[in-house]
Amino acid sequence: MTLLEEVLSFNKEFVTNKMYEEFTTDKFPDKRVVILTCMDTRLVELVTKAMNFKNGDVKIVRNAGAIINHPFGSIMRSLLVAVYQLRADEVLIVGHHDCGMSTLSSDVMFDAMKERGVKQETIDTLRHAGIEVDQWLEGFSSVEESVQHSVHMVKSHPLMVPNIPVHGLVIHPETGELDLVVDGYEKEASL
To answer: What EC number(s) are associated with this protein in UniProt (predicted)?
Structure first.
């Protein structure tokens, strides 16, 4: 049985047995918070449980490293939608220790891509077209600095509510302990 067949088989049972009922909520976050965090598998449930949030309390946006690289990319758009359309009044940026993005290098990524069929010519074409693909595929050296960067991107965005609290935290993926990096209730001057 393929993974997709397993998923669809379980889903049929899930719906038939009304297992979805325990997750019933609406689209608005009860705690009026949106979280940007990493896609790391260790954080799927840990982030919300470590903060005492349950299903329906928060909106969650995930990407590699909880990084906002572009002020008009899909991550920033999702945060703006959460604030303006889904009633979020605070933003939490949550990075984590032992993040794969802290060791990511474009050379390693290109090698992995080539092993899976991407041609060197394709990579060269992107580089020659002026796409900064090497920089785009680089990680970060400090999770705290990365979180500070993402907080700053949100706080300084021209379309973001000017006085919205944007907090920066780093979570330990083994214990769920949170380290405060940026207190969004304080002035951004510390960034």
So the answer is: 4.2.1.1
Q: Compute the distance between CA of residue 64 and CA of residue 181 in angstroms, rounded to an integer.
A: 19
CATH class in words for 26-104+139-190: alpha beta
Q: How far apart are CA 134 and CA 138, in angstroms?
A: 7
Confidence band, pLDDT 50/70/90 cuts, at residue 59? very high
Of the candidates 91, 84, 90, 62, the residue with the CA atom closest to the CA atom of residue 75? 62
**Looking at the whole model, is its pTM more than 0.85?**
yes
Instruction: Give the Cα separation of 98 and 106 in Å (integer).
Output: 18
108, 115 contact by CB (below 8 A):
no
Cα 112 from Cα 126, distance rounded (Å) = 17
